[in-house]
Amino acid sequence: MSLLVVGSIAIDSVETPCGTADEVMGGSAVYFSYAASIFGDVRLVGAVGQDFPREFHEALQERPIDLEGLEVVEGKTFRWEGAYKGDMAQAETRDVKLNVFEDFQPEVPAVFRDSEFVFLANGSPYTQIHVLDQMESPEFALADTMNLWIENERDGLLELMNRVDALILNDAEARQLSEDANLLRAARWICNRGPDYCIIKKGEHGSLLRGPDGIFVLPAFPSENLTDPTGAGDSFAGGLMGYLASEAKVDMEALKQGLAHGTVTASFTLEDFSTDSLGNVTTDQLDQRMQEFLRCTQLKA
Amino acid sequence: MSLLVVGSIAIDSVETPCGTADEVMGGSAVYFSYAASIFGDVRLVGAVGQDFPREFHEALQERPIDLEGLEVVEGKTFRWEGAYKGDMAQAETRDVKLNVFEDFQPEVPAVFRDSEFVFLANGSPYTQIHVLDQMESPEFALADTMNLWIENERDGLLELMNRVDALILNDAEARQLSEDANLLRAARWICNRGPDYCIIKKGEHGSLLRGPDGIFVLPAFPSENLTDPTGAGDSFAGGLMGYLASEAKVDMEALKQGLAHGTVTASFTLEDFSTDSLGNVTTDQLDQRMQEFLRCTQLKA
Predict the structure, then answer these.
(1) How far apart are CA A225 and CA A222, in angstroms?
(2) How far apart are the CA of B215 and the nearest CA of chain A, in angstroms?
(3) Statement: the pTM of the whole predicted model exceeds 0.80
């Protein structure tokens, strides 16, 4: 089934204990698209500035990503500079320049409006609602959010939650939104306010899914090879949505499997800077790592 | 098979966001014994002072715990006062009085020396070695440790590691011991220094097992009902060792199942103060919660 992502496209500069990467491709829509396109076609809506490097554009074109919705706008591309230290659990933002992303009002191309699966990457809830307003009748819409919107656009976020099938956010954000330290209660609080499903990303501690049929928890893929966590959350969402769209199913069982596929997909992102590792993953490699993940997390019946 | 625990018996006073418990029974050997005795008989070696309440003694006697090794020594029982705040991830110690535990040199009763499964609860590595020296030929010895010994008795701890089959410790301790932030590498570092297996407890984030045949990771039991985490780690070890002793097996598959049983056993401890919840668990309740745990963590094949 068709899968649409609306989100940011960025030029990142990142420093981690493993090294640095200067002016590399990043942004939620990029990581999501790279991840989801391992499973099938992806439609992308986003904006870049006139400085967006030709080689980044070409790299996107080489994948099964439909760039009909990629706008080149007057101005500069969104830039993020950040660093990770120690266990790399948290990014320290050194500089952000929203540039063309600041006034980005996504226009979904007419040919994308029938998309059945929709991922609204982190952005203002009102912008996310503006995207939904343009869609015909998506089967499954998943929205991401962050602390900024929880603090400053809470009403918009609550409105959005009534419009989507699922909300994805990290553990700190779930606690902040629900004002509850317990993640299971936080997920229930969220599900009581609109979405059928809530997915909480816990970084190196894995993920949690709450739906009408209960709870599901999965560890992260156990990796000794963490280089740069940037984009792992969006890669997780990309693997999850790519899997669901390819299976054309959205029940609890499919979502559990989606969580596992998202986990395994994200494990590649972490292993190198930018999309250097994720961009080279074959379906065979993904299947192989999925088997490894099952060996590491599943008991024999 | 026979199972021995050597550890502390304490009188705890605990404050959590859910309430307080004053002068309740605690200590590593107590939580371990309560947990393991759901699976079968346990032999306990420990010391209490003359002030140890008769009702605590009777409560221990009511369970299948052999108290042949319980010494009543002149002086007072080990006392701990602590508090948990927020998400209760870390205890804040308000007061510790080691009392009779300070000079405790465990003497293993002759009738306990043939024990096949041995749990050396957290204590000085030299004391733990002193216990091992008294044992005939245990099939599987598991030792717990803590930051105090990693800092102050590192040589003793490394000597102990060469004598046991497995080491269990929490995530912060594993990082401190190995001087590596990555838990998988930390576990490998430990396994390279003696034990066949390393088990890392990650509190609300579950546990990790490293053995000669690879890695296994499990989430914690998803619970909305956290009242007091005191003793959860020792209950986890008790469920794990109780299960292994009851199955009379110690290969990787058995340890994976042991991890799951330890997880589920510990989930009861958290639900009330002291052993109030754990002490009332029946085998049926444990089996039922195990099924719930499998539903929450295992994918359909």
Answers:
(1) 9
(2) 6
(3) yes
